[in-house]
Every structure is written in structure tokens, then in C-alpha cells.
TrEMBL record:
Name under which the protein is recorded: Lactate utilization protein B/C
InterPro entries noted in UniProt: FTHF_cligase-like_sf (IPR024185), LUD_dom (IPR003741), NagB/RpiA_transferase-like (IPR037171)
The LUD domain, residue ranges: 43-208
Cited SUPFAM superfamilies: NagB/RpiA/CoA transferase-like
């Protein structure tokens, strides 16, 4: 018998005398905190993203190609990872080598790529969190974790919610979810902050309105 089977067996025995009514979990907690307008929710997202040291930009659909091109140029990026379903026009003005999201890419190959551009599944204002679910315009989870520079485009206001419970309603637990709150960072016992440990050092979020 495996460890997994032993643990599940203990759980089943512990629940053997529990009726179905007792198994219902009460979810009467607040779904969001405060009564905000759509504009206020987007502003809160921008504030919390910046508080997490993400770089926040705003633009329209027509301005997006030139903005992405400028961000890649400022970064001196020579190559960019591109998810298969990313809108073709987003990189129309970027003079960079495009690298496809391939299943057989090695970690070393991904590490040599300068930047990655993705969309997102949802953005959470109260926590300043971007969630990717591996959709066609987001690609495999690892492409947003290995390259050192990540540009993530959030459609405003369609992809912005106030709080985590609202985000969970839009997400499938069967998909590979990546929750991103600012650039990758950690601290040692002396609280010295180190960025880029298990993800990009630089996260740029474009609020596309």
C-alpha cells in the first residue's frame, strides 16, 4: 500500500459517520472588500502591481504594438518567446527574433531568450495578482518563469476582478495556473531581498483599454 492510499484511507474512515449535510462547506465570506466602480477597481490593480515592483503601462489597442516594441527596445531584447495564440499584431513593430513555444525546448534554450510576451487569464485588483492558465495566448507555464523579462497584457476591464473569489469563478482547476504577484523575489533569514530566483526579474504589465 502506498503512502497516498494510506492517507486517503484515513480520510475515508474519519468521514465514515459524517452525513452529506455536514459535508457542505459554508462560503458566506465576502467576495470582495468595499464597493468600487470599474474604474476604481482598475486603479487599485495598477497601484498594487506597482507596490509589488511591477512596471505598469496603459495603452489602447492601436498603441499596443508600438508600446511593446519600445519596451523590448528599452530592454535591448534581441529575442522574444511567443505563445502560439498570441495576437499577431502585438509584435508587428518589434524588431526581434521570435522564438516559438516548443514542448522540446530545454531550460538552457529558454534561459537564452531575452523576453517573453503573453496575455493573461485574469487579474486580481485587491492582491495585485496576474493569473495565467496556459491558454493559447499565454503558452506553457515555463515560458513565463525562465526568461528574465516578462511583458503581460491585461485587457481592461474585461479581465480585471476585485478579489480572489471572483477570479476563482473564472478559472478551471484542471488547467496549469500560474499566479504572479510582481517580479520573482525571495528573502533570506536577514530579509535581504533577491529578485529573479524562480521567475523573471522584471515584470511589465500593460493595461490594455
Amino acid at each position: 500500500m502506498s503512502s497516498r492510499e494510506r492517507i486517503l484511507g484515513r480520510v475515508r474512515r474519519a468521514l465514515a459517520d459524517v452525513t452529506p449535510d455536514e459535508q457542505v462547506i459554508q462560503r458566506d465570506y465576502l467576495r470582495e472588500h468595499g464597493d468600487r466602480t470599474v474604474e476604481q477597481t482598475v486603479e487599485l490593480l495598477a497601484e498594487n502591481l506597482a507596490d509589488y515592483r511591477a512596471l505598469v503601462h496603459r495603452c489602447t489597442e492601436d498603441e499596443l504594438p508600438s508600446l511593446i516594441a519600445r519596451l523590448l527596445t528599452d530592454r535591448k531584447a534581441g529575442s522574444v518567446l511567443v505563445p502560439p495564440g498570441l495576437a499577431e499584431g502585438w509584435l508587428a513593430e518589434a524588431d526581434v527574433t521570435r522564438v516559438a513555444d516548443r514542448a522540446d525546448s530545454t531550460p538552457h534554450e529558454l534561459d537564452r531568450v531575452d523576453s517573453v510576451v503573453t496575455a493573461c487569464a485574469v487579474a486580481i485588483a485587491e492582491t495585485g495578482t496576474i493569473v495565467l492558465d496556459g491558454g493559447p495566448d499565454q503558452g506553457r507555464r515555463r515560458i513565463s518563469l525562465v526568461p528574465d523579462h516578462h511583458i503581460c497584457v491585461v485587457r481592461v476591464p474585461d479581465q480585471v476582478v476585485s478579489a480572489v473569489p471572483q477570479a476563482l469563478e473564472r478559472l478551471s482547476p484542471t488547467r496549469p495556473l500560474t499566479w504572479i504577484s510582481g517580479p520573482s523575489a525571495t528573502s533570506d533569514i536577514e530579509l535581504d531581498r533577491v529578485e529573479g530566483v524562480h521567475g523573471p526579474r522584471t515584470l511589465e504589465v500593460v493595461l490594455l483599454g
